[in-house]
Amino acid sequence: DAGVIQSPRHEVTEMGQEVTLRCKPISGHNSLFWYRQTMMRGLELLIYFNNNVPIDDSGMPEDRFSAKMPNASFSTLKIQPSEPRDSAVYFCASSPRAGKASYEQYFGPGTRLTVT
Amino acid sequence: AQKVTQAQTEISVVEKEDVTLDCVYETRDTTYYLFWYKQPPSGELVFLIRRNSFDEQNEISGRYSWNFQKSTSSFNFTITASQVVDSAVYFCALSEVESGGSNYKLTFGKGTLLTVNP
């Protein structure tokens, strides 16, 4: 079975440009999570969805960040406009049961974003 | 608020040595779940184990073993006879159910970089 799929794997863009990261969760999983990983702050939860509905976006750093999940098999994380401090690895993860703390999350390979 | 502390930032061992990675957590909930993830140099995060707060039995999987002790709020991870392929960053994580019981968050520790030298 395919795991969580993220695209692109690498993205280099200039400050001020719009960046869109994409994620396809594991089929049948009901929860989807977006994380950001940096050396300074480690792994941070940005937002998560249960059954395509955003539940908690308190981790989204500012209004420049937005996330959508139009259907069960696709989610996007958009940064507009991008800034150098947004440079990080962005992970998408999915989990089998919405709202169940007991279930592990399966992570995608990540998107390494560099904003110059 | 929940918190996970991995006090060891980096550990370096020689192949075949045993190594223990420490994890201490804080939570006010009585029901919670603990996880370990591995992040090899390739970058992906790989799930290793899940443990719930009501099950304090230690678990062994091949060369890996986990020691869960509620009395000290610790969930330590031991690799026996380490190998070069074990070199990775290892993350401990805690999941607790928020009020209302329908939502939850996974809080990660800062990770421990394990280097196994040949």
Write a structural description:
The complex is a heterodimer of chains A (116) and B (118). Chain A is mainly beta and 116 residues long. Chain A contains no helices and 11 strands. In chain A, the strands form 2 sheets. In chain A, strands 2, 4, 5, 6, 9, 10 and 11 form a 7-stranded mixed sheet that branches. Chain A has a 4-stranded antiparallel sheet with strand order 1-3-8-7, with no helix packed on it. In chain A, strand 4 (31-38) and strand 5 form a beta hairpin. In chain B, the strands form 3 sheets. In chain B, strands 2, 5, 6, 10, 11 and 12 form a 6-stranded mixed sheet that branches. The N and C termini of chain B lie far apart (41 Å). With 118 residues, chain B is an all-beta fold. Classes of the chains: A mainly beta (116), B mainly beta (118). Chain A binds chain B through residues 33, 42-43, 45, 48, 50, 55-56, 89, 91, 93, 99-110, 112, and chain B through 31-33, 35, 37, 43-47, 50, 52, 91, 95-97, 101-111.
Largest interface: A-B, 24 and 27 residues
Helix content of chain B: under 10%
How would you describe the shape of chain B?
globular
How many E-type strands of chain A? 11
Topology of chain A as a string of helices (H) and strands (E): EEEEEEEEEEE
User: What is the terminal-to-terminal distance of chain B?
Assistant: 41 Å
